[in-house]
Amino acid sequence: MAKPKWFVRRRIGIGVRPVSWQGWLITVIAVAAAITGYVIFKKTAGDVAIVCVAVVYLLVAVASGGTKRATLGSGVVGDSPASTGQVDVAFTHADAPTYDSQTPREIAEAIVTQSGRFAGQSEAGYASSDAVIVVDHLTKQFGERVAFRDVSFSVNRGEVFGFLGPNGAGKTSTVRTLSTLVTPTSGSASVAGIDLTPRNGFEIRQRIAVMTELPGLYLRLTVTENLEFFAGLYGFRNAQARIDRALEAVNLTSRAGDLSGSLSKGLRQRVGLARALLNDPEIIFLDEPTAGLDPVASLEVHDLINALRAKGVTVFLTTHRLDEAEKLCDRVAILNTTLRTVGHIDDLRQRMFRKGIVVTTALPLANPDAVFNSVASVESWTSDAGNYVITVNDVRAAAPEVTRALVRAGADVLSIVESRHSLEEVYLELVGATEKGGDQ
Amino acid sequence: MSLSSTRIRAVIRKEFREYRRNRFIIYTMATLPIFFIALPVIELFNISATSGASIVRTQVDVTMLLMLVIPVVLPATVAAYSVIGERDQGTLEPLLTTPISREEFLLGKSLAATIPSVGMAYLFFLVLVVAVRIASPSVVVHAVWKPSWFVAEVLFAPLLAAWSVWVGTAISARSSDVRVAQQLGTLASLPALVLPLLMALQVFQPTVTTAIVLALSLAIIDVGAWRVVSLMFDRERLITGNRAVSMRIDAPS
Residue B244's closest chain A neighbor by CA? Predict the structure, then answer.
């Protein structure tokens, strides 16, 4: 149940009437102050004293009573839409769901479903191809130093988009630009369908959440108090149920009352994640979300990210962990001041590396040239640590032919597998090429 | 420009919680005023019933002036820490990615610094005037219990505190070191005492009208200071140390 306002002010006129003990207390104090002031300054400034008290009283009343006539006991008191443009969708405790025996993924799914914003999108979700971030020839310079230059890409709704690059590549500057913290030098962009312009910063920040690399918690406040503060900044007046859900999602309910300063780095990271879930964002920017987390906690974060994606939340993931990017991201972009590449990881592999088969035999082949050159689809081959790496046009067509050729040659075949290049190889290939070739 | 009371209240509540858990702030708020006013108050209570009118008036003027030093000095250190402190502990960037506007952020910060300082100033003033009423000779009571002093205290305490806060916040928004910001903040807030000083030195007659006119002037200066400090509050500069070149992205005005 939401607390009633201290005062209710009528829409027409300035009538103020207290509706709770706080309001009555302030009223009694104001009347007493007015009488005292009048008695003390009766001869010289009794009227001024009364006016001063009345002004202070009205200011307190207006400040604490809002600008609308409140409905007592309604259970939900949202912020003034005129001032925030946002509707408070906080649940009453009676409506608050319970999450007993649920995995973090299930809990995160529950969060985005119950928010209402993503209701009905679970089917569309990831399949939707509408872009929620569009970056067009964006450049940011700090004086003479170029943070990133001429960057263009788009991110679709419900996509987990990996943003990779070496230190100093401009990843953080890009995130700061898209989250309206810094201003681009040239180019254009839209975030959550809103143009990135000076006047739209407020609207954009309402629809996004950013988890910075350092969680940035107030160490003298408890976990709940930290979240209460940020819920307030998003304009939510009764956010306890929202906070409870966010804490459940990151498995921190049991530490809700602990001072943030007493938490380990990993736990602080989780609080930062909970904070990013508070406003049910359309887009979450996560900067190294699993840095400092143990493997189990990292898996929980991965589950959370997957659940958010499934419900249509776009995740912009900046990470140095290429295995994490490979596991989570639908597409990745590799930045090194300029954008090196962007696309699906499989497409990048195919684009950068020739298709191939890796053959392992019990003993080295007597005449591998004769074996492999007899297969039409084989383009070339090399020997690598007892394995034969064969470059082919089409893996599915070549594999049976290579197998038959090996059997004909009497080879003891241990395995024949498609050679698969990791994202790390793609990354190193791109970034390594950049560093060798300079910043083109 | 629309201000959200929810966001401003969130900042104030957070600041109060941090103050409450910071013994240094609590002890400073509780003890600093005592150092400023102890001696003049003792002198005031040493005045006998046979003392000359000029002696009484001088002593009362000095004491009352020092009562106005409290709301100037108390919030200066806190205000000087307000922005650069957030940056130092890494909380500024997450905060600035929320929809809070710079005006709301600064107003919340300033109110959180002003309210306890003004409260302490009023408390010390109240204790002083009641003690004078009870324990001092009537000549002192008449000199202290003048409407002009009450009006001056009621009006000037919040206005001087606000001035001190805005100066401290402006310095905090542009400093790179907490200690420098706090020292400069305290120093830069002192000129605000010129107005009550002029009253105490009888350059202006300390009448109710004078007090109200001067208070209105100070109020206008405070509002102007708020706007100036808001304009100085550059998200990009605070985060990266570089000034935004082409445009600033902020709440629509």
Answer: A183
Q: Tens of pLDDT along A85-129?
A: 333 322 233 333 333 344 444 433 443 334 333 333 333 333 345
Computed on alpha carbons and rounded to an integer, the radius of gyration of chain B in Å comes to 20
State the nearest Cα–Cα gap between A9 and chain B, in angstroms.
15
pLDDT at B248: 46
Q: Would you place residue B61 in the very low, low, confident or very high pLDDT band (cuts 50, 70, 90)?
A: confident
Domain A131-348 belongs in CATH node 3.40.50.300 = yes
Q: How close A167 comes to chain B (CA, Å)? A: 16
* Gap from A260 CA to chain B (nearest CA, Å): 12
- Whether chain B has a CB inside 8 Å of the CB on A54: the answer is no
Pairing label, strands A331-336, A338-344: antiparallel
Q: What is the pTM of this model?
A: 0.71
Taking an 8 Å cut-off on Cβ atoms, the answer to whether A201 and B95 are in contact is no
Number of cross-chain residue pairs from A and B with Cβ atoms under 8 Å apart: 158
Average pLDDT of the segment spanning A198-209: 92
Ranges of CATH 3.30.70.100 domains, chain A:
354-420
Mutation for testing the B interface, residue in A182, A227, A268 having most B CBs under 10 Å: A182
Cross-chain Cβ contact B2/A83 below 8 Å:
yes
Which tens digit of pLDDT belongs to each residue from A267-307? 898 899 999 999 999 999 999 888 777 888 888 888 888 88
Q: Of A143, A201, A220, which is closest to B22 when you measure between CB atoms? A: A220
Task: Say if domain A354-420 classifies as CATH 3.40.50.300.
Answer: no
CB atoms B99 and A45 under 8 Å: no
Digit-coded pLDDT (tens) for B97-127? 999 998 899 999 999 999 999 999 999 999 8
Question: CATH 3.40.50.300 occupies which residues in chain A?
Answer: 131-348
ipTM over 0.90: no
User: Is there a contact between B236 and A181 if contact means CB atoms under 8 Å apart?
Assistant: yes
Pairing of strands A16-18, A7-9: antiparallel
Q: Do A225 and B4 touch (CB under 8 A)?
A: no
Eight-state DSSP code of residue B242? S
The CA distance from B227 to A118, in Å, is 39
Residue B89 is given by DSSP the state T
CB atoms within 10 A of CB A134: 17
Contact A48/B at CB under 8 A: yes
